């Protein structure tokens, strides 16, 4: 069954006396096989269904576990029992140092194969003296081989919603941009930069600029992309997310183009020549419709043509085998399972994954509720507030007059924080008279050169702890600004407003991140005099968070609590949770767990 076409469908028409030939029997098998392959490919996809784990056994030996996969044509690939395989016996392996020392890894691939077995004597004489051999059966099997080449097509599960483009590939380094295919008009979306160190021993750093069309970041039409391996924990693969906003348009392609001449690359301290001119443009389709509906629409419209048209060989990549040189021998360092995530999720497994994900969300929310219930939901007894010591503060606010003003014209200051916190305070103001004098009280009593004749008023915001000064000119003036001295005080008699509890919460209260991923948490605080926030992570090995709320997930998956405390009132705290998962190992771990359960 080497044909890669599904059509046309033709089956035997039987009648009494029909003479059946070899072609008729082959047509019978081909009809049934093609129908099954079509269902396999369109309903299930291409990839590993279960098993096929690759496990390192020794420095030069791996074990290929039993399992099932469907190839690009819908044919079943079955490994019925585990087998130990030496690396140097696998097709595609070369022990020549010159060929391999610059490639610190090899991909182990599997594909469908079949062969003839049980040679027999043919009644027609074929297969006897010098004729073509006849075989009784055709056996279906598989072929494994090693290669350093990447798959030609993107992972099918991501093909319809995102697109990858290589920015640079050379010197053991690959830099890839990943953009979604569709984004919602006026909304933010995630752009990912993937950096792979494929054997470069010296630390790498690079940078370039992206110029946007119908896209923006922080209200700018461009952004700088930088990376320095020295600032990160050494790894083979780094994933750096960034948030970009789509413009308020519809049916337009937003583009991110690499600015010509902006790309630079350092290996160690040596500035590399990029070689060919680096020119990359990533595009997204900006739509007002639901993105999920757009992806489904594209799949229904194009899947028939795209899937049937893929008649070239496409292998399934089971593992990335990382290698090191020991003298003149190649040694297996470690094995990364399913580097391109070529899995097929059955209905049962998809339901399990959805349920597990839901349980993770429920568990994280229960932990959040416990903390909130224990820390912030104690009932307060209604008692008379104790009188506090008087508090006082003061300062100068400048009110701009522009080029001057006429009599009766009113000017206002910007909001001023008096520093005494929320509640009722009294604010007294006076107008600077020039020199060392400040005039309080009614206008017109004191006069002099340079003195602005004006009256002032104050409006206090008791909730936010701020006030605004209003100044009305009694006489025309050419002065361009007036300094108003203010004094605010609280005598302790008006404490009810101050004793109201402050409010503090974090947006969002829960996120899902991959290891080493960055995320910005926003703290919303009210009812306190000082809006500063002190950030921390409750777990000792739970990652880090800076003074602005930028959280960096750790290398270890788990659920971690990010805590925000008010600088004005340390007892006023709020928590958010980060569910950190290792995306690269999660699917492999599920396969291992499922195998153990069986």
Structural class: alpha+beta
What is the radius of gyration computed over CA atoms, rounded to a whole number of angstroms?
36 Å
The CATH class of the largest domain turns out to be Mainly Beta
Biggest sheet statistics: 7 strands, mixed
Percentage of residues in DSSP E strands: 35-45%
Q: Please give the number of β-strands.
A: 39
Gross morphology? elongated
CATH superfamily label of the largest domain: Immunoglobulins
SS element count, helices = 6
How does this structure look, described?
The protein folds into 4 domains: 22-146, no CATH class; 156-309, Immunoglobulin-like, CATH 2.60.40; 358-377 and 501-588, Sandwich (Immunoglobulin-like); 391-490. Helices cover 16% and strands 42% of the residues. It is built from 6 helices and 39 strands. Strand 9 and strand 10 (173-180) form a beta hairpin. It starts with 21 loop residues before the first helix and ends with a helix.
